[in-house]
Design brief:
With 736 residues, this protein is of the alpha+beta class. The protein is built from 20 helices and 20 strands. Strand 7 and strand 8 form a beta hairpin. Keywords: Membrane, Transmembrane, Transmembrane helix.
C-alpha cells in the first residue's frame, strides 16, 4: 500500500494528524478508485493542512479577502446589498437633527412667534399706549399678535418636554446605533481590501469593535499597539462613536432650562400709580402745594413710614426700616440725622416698593439737600425781597411795650414765578432762607446762655429729573438721567382722548404726551421751589407759627404740658427725642420741651411759640435747624409731586406687568455653534458609513466574532493548480 510521510516542522503534531487522516483515506479509497483519484484526494487534504498552518502564520488576509472564497461543506453564502444600516441611520439622523433644531428654536423663540418677549421694550415688540379719555380708559399694543397666547404657550411647553424626552432616548441609543453602523461598514471595508499585508490582528480589532473600548482607544497612541491594531477604518469608527458619546452630555450641560416671565397676549399690564410730569408740575397752584405740605408736616411723626422716599444703594440710611427718620440716625458726639435727602435719597410720587416688571417706565423725582450755618447779623437781607415773617418773643405776662425780642424769617425770591423749565432733562434749583434772633430774643430764649444775636442761613439744592423704575430684570432703580426724551423712550405712551370717551384705537401723535401733545402755559400763581414752599408751610398763614405770632399776649396757662391737645406741633419729635445734635453738657434751651400737640387756647400761644422756636431754631451749630428744614423740604417735595400727579391732562400713568412665568430652554449662541458642528460631523460620518454599507454586496451582515470564526474554520481559497502543486511538492510528501 503506498505511503507517505510529513516532514518535521514546528507543526509536526498537527501535520502528522492530518497526514495520517489523509493516508488512511487514501488507502480506503484505493479499493474503489484508481491511484490518480487517490493522489488528488490526498493532495486536497494536504492543502487543508497548509491552509490551517497559514492561518497560524497570520497570512489570514489571503483567504479572508479573496473574492473567490467559498465555504466547504455548505452552499456558498449568497452576497447581497444590505440596507438595514441606512434605515437606522435615516431614523436616527432625523430624530437627532429634528430634536436639536426644535430645541434651539424653542430656546430663542416660540415655534409660531418671532420671539420670546420678556419685556415690552424688547426690540421687535410693538409700541403700547394708554388712552385716558376721562370717562373711559383703554390699553393696547400695536400689532400685539406677535405676543404668544396662553394656548400657544401650552403647545410650546409640550414641544419642549417632548424634545427633552427625545434627547434622553437618543443619548441612550447614540452609541449602539453608531457602533452597529460601523460594524456593518467594516465588512465592506475588509471585502474591498486589495493589500495583502492587512494583518489578522487588525481584522480582529475591527471584529471586537475596539472603537467602543476606551483602553483600546488609548492604545492607539502607543506606537507598537498602533502598528499592530490600527487601521484607517478604526480611526474613522472611533471618531464617529466618540462624537456620538459627546453630543448629548454637552447638550445637557449647555442646553439648560430656566424659569422666565414673558409677555402674554390677553394679560395686559395693570395700573400701578399716576406719576407727576414736568408739564403737570407747571399746572400746580402754589396754594394747593402749600396746603398739602402743611398737612403733611403737621401729621408727621418720628415713626412714620415714608413710601415716597427712595434711598440710594450706598446710603447709610435703612438700619431701621420701620422708621423713615430714625433709619438715618447715627450715634456720635450727639445723635443727629444724616441728610435724608440730597445724594443719599430722593422723593418720587411712585412708591419705593414699585417694580414695573416687564414694563419699562421712568418716573419723576426730586432730591434736595439742605445745609444751615450761622452767619453774621449784617448778612440778613434787609429789606427782604420775597417771603418774610416775624414774631416778638415776649412772655405772655409781660408788657407789650417792653423791648422787642424779635425773630425774623426771610426767603428771597420771586414768589410769583415758576422756578423750573418745562423740560424733562435734568435741572437744578438753588434756594436760600434766613433766620434771625436779635440779641434780646437770643438771650431770653436761651436763659442768658447767648448774649448776642443768632443769624442762620439755610441753602437748599434741589435736582429734578427722571429715573428708570426697577424692573423684573433689574431690581434696582436707575440713575438720574441728564437727558430724557419721552417720545423716544420705551415707556408706554400716554394719550389723552376726548372728554366724551371716544378716541381712535391708535392715538395720533398730537394726543400723546411727550410727542406732539401741546406743552401748556404755566398756570397763574404756580408752585414754588421746595425750600420756599417748606418755609411758607412753617411760617406762613394758617401755620402753627403764624397763629401764635400774630396773637395778643394773654395770661399764661403754660399749656405746653397741658392735657388739652388740639393743635399739632410741627416736628415735635426733634425736640422730644433729643436728636437735635446739641452736646449733652451744653444747656441752651430755657423752656420745657414741647409735646406733639398743644392747646389752641390763645392764652398759651406765647409760651408754646417760645418753646417751639427755642427747641427748633436756637442752635448756634445749626444742626437742629438743618434737620428740621431737611425734613420740611422732604414734605414739600412729596406734596408738590402729589399735586402734579393729580393734573389729569398732564399726568403719566405707570403700569406694571409681572409677566407670565413659564419654563424655557436656554443656550448661548457660541454653544449652539459648537454642538451644531459636532452633530454635523457625527451625522455626516454615519451617513457616509451607512451609504458605504450599500456600495457592494457583502457575504455577511456585520463583522463580528461569529463571522471571523466561520472564516477561520470553513473558508477554502480557490487557487490555481499550478500553485497548489508547488505547495504540495514543497511539503516533502510523496505521491504514488
Amino acid at each position: 500500500m503506498p505511503g507517505s510521510t510529513l516532514p518535521e516542522t514546528k507543526y509536526g503534531l498537527l501535520q502528522e494528524q492530518v497526514g495520517m487522516r489523509s493516508l488512511g483515506e487514501a488507502s480506503t479509497d484505493n479499493n474503489n478508485n484508481n491511484n490518480n483519484n487517490n493522489s488528488d484526494r490526498h493532495y486536497d487534504d494536504i492543502t487543508d493542512t497548509k491552509n490551517i498552518l497559514q492561518y497560524e502564520d497570520h497570512n489570514f488576509d489571503k483567504y479572508l479577502l479573496s473574492k473567490s472564497a467559498t465555504v466547504r461543506g455548505a452552499p456558498p453564502a449568497p452576497r447581497k446589498r444590505r440596507y438595514i444600516a441606512l434605515f437606522f441611520m435615516s431614523l436616527y439622523g432625523f430624530l437627532l437633527l429634528f430634536s436639536w433644531i426644535v430645541s434651539v428654536i424653542l430656546a430663542f423663540k416660540p415655534l409660531n412667534k418671532p420671539a420670546w418677549y420678556t419685556s415690552y421694550s424688547q426690540p421687535g415688540h410693538a409700541p403700547c399706549h394708554y388712552i385716558d379719555a376721562g370717562t373711559g380708559q383703554s390699553f393696547a399694543c400695536e400689532g400685539n399678535l406677535k405676543e404668544v397666547t396662553l394656548d400657544e404657550l401650552a403647545m410650546n411647553d409640550r414641544w419642549r418636554r417632548a424634545m427633552r424626552i427625545v434627547n434622553s432616548i437618543m443619548a441612550v441609543l447614540a452609541l449602539p446605533i453608531s457602533s452597529g453602523i460601523c460594524a456593518r461598514a467594516a465588512v465592506v471595508y475588509l471585502q474591498n481590501r486589495r493589500n495583502d499585508t492587512f494583518a489578522i490582528s487588525k481584522v480582529l480589532a475591527l471584529a471586537d469593535r475596539r472603537w467602543l473600548d476606551p483602553v483600546a482607544m488609548g492604545q492607539l497612541f502607543i506606537p507598537r499597539s498602533r502598528l499592530k491594531y490600527s487601521s484607517k477604518f478604526l480611526y474613522i469608527a472611533t471618531f464617529v462613536c466618540v462624537l456620538g458619546v459627546l453630543i448629548f452630555p454637552l447638550q445637557e450641560l449647555l442646553l439648560t432650562q430656566e424659569s422666565v416671565r414673558i409677555v402674554v397676549r390677553g394679560l395686559p399690564p395693570t395700573f400701578l400709580t399716576d406719576d407727576a410730569d414736568i408739564t403737570g408740575l407747571s399746572q400746580v397752584k402754589a396754594g394747593h402745594a402749600i396746603t398739602a405740605t402743611i398737612a403733611s408736616i403737621n401729621a408727621g411723626d418720628l415713626w412714620d413710614s415714608q413710601p415716597n422716599l427712595w434711598k440710594e444703594p450706598w446710603s447709610k440710611c435703612g438700619v431701621f426700616p420701620s422708621s423713615w427718620a430714625r433709619s438715618c440716625i447715627q450715634q456720635g458726639n450727639g445723635i443727629f440725622f444724616y441728610p435724608i435727602m440730597g445724594n443719599a435719597s430722593f422723593v418720587s410720587h411712585v412708591p419705593n416698593s414699585a417694580n414695573s416688571g416687564l414694563v419699562e417706565a421712568h418716573a419723576f423725582r426730586f432730591n434736595s439737600s439742605v445745609d444751615c450755618t450761622a452767619i453774621a447779623e449784617d448778612e440778613f437781607p434787609r429789606p427782604c425781597n420775597g417771603f418774610s415773617a416775624s414774631s416778638v418773643t415776649n412772655s405772655s405776662n409781660e408788657d407789650s411795650n417792653s423791648d422787642a425780642r424779635e425773630f425774623r424769617v426771610c426767603a428771597p425770591g420771586n414768589i410769583d414765578q415758576f422756578p423750573w423749565n418745562v423740560t424733562r432733562n435734568r435741572q437744578d434749583l438753588d434756594e436760600v432762607v434766613y433766620l434771625h434772633f436779635n440779641d434780646a430774643a437770643a438771650s431770653f430764649l436761651s436763659g442768658g446762655n447767648l448774649s448776642t444775636s443768632l443769624t442762620q442761613r439755610c441753602t437748599a439744592q434741589t435736582t429734578a429729573g427722571y429715573f428708570l423704575l426697577p424692573t423684573h430684570d433689574n431690581s434696582s432703580f436707575g440713575p438720574l438721567l441728564n437727558k430724557f426724551d419721552l417720545s423716544t423712550s420705551n415707556d408706554i405712551q400716554q394719550a389723552f382722548g376726548k372728554e366724551d370717551g371716544r378716541s381712535p384705537s391708535v392715538p395720533p401723535p398730537e394726543t400723546i404726551l411727550g410727542h406732539k401733545y401741546p406743552i401748556p402755559e404755566v398756570t397763574d400763581s404756580p408752585v414754588l421751589g421746595p425750600l420756599l414752599t417748606a418755609t411758607i408751610s412753617l411760617f406762613g398763614p394758617s401755620t402753627f407759627f403764624s397763629t401764635r405770632a400774630n396773637s395778643t399776649a394773654q395770661t399764661s396757662s403754660n399749656t405746653a404740658s397741658s392735657n388739652d391737645c388740639t393743635d399739632a406741633v410741627p416736628f415735635h419729635y426733634i425736640s422730644t427725642t433729643g436728636i437735635s445734635g446739641r452736646p449733652p453738657n451744653r444747656k441752651i434751651v430755657s423752656f420745657k420741651r414741647i409735646g406733639p400737640c398743644v392747646s389752641n387756647s390763645p392764652s398759651a400761644y406765647s409760651e408754646d411759640l417760645n418753646t417751639w422756636l427755642s427747641d427748633m431754631f436756637l442752635d448756634p451749630a445749626s444742626i437742629t435747624t438743618s434737620d428740621l428744614f431737611t425734613q420740611a423740604v422732604f414734605h414739600a417735595n412729596k406734596a408738590i409731586l402729589m399735586r402734579a400727579a393729580a393734573q389729569r391732562r398732564y399726568r403719566r400713568t405707570i403700569f406694571q406687568d409681572p409677566g407670565y412665568e413659564t419654563q424655557k430652554l436656554e443656550i448661548h449662541r457660541p454653544s449652539v455653534a459648537v454642538i451644531s458642528v459636532l452633530i454635523a460631523f457625527h451625522v455626516v460620518g454615519l451617513v457616509s458609513l451607512a451609504i458605504y454599507t450599500t456600495s457592494v454586496p457583502t457575504w455577511t451582515e456585520m463583522l463580528d466574532s461569529l463571522a471571523v470564526l466561520r472564516l477561520g474554520t470553513q473558508l477554502d481559497v480557490s487557487r490555481s493548480r499550478e500553485q497548489l502543486n508547488m505547495e504540495y511538492e514543497g511539503s516533502g510528501v510523496g505521491r504514488t
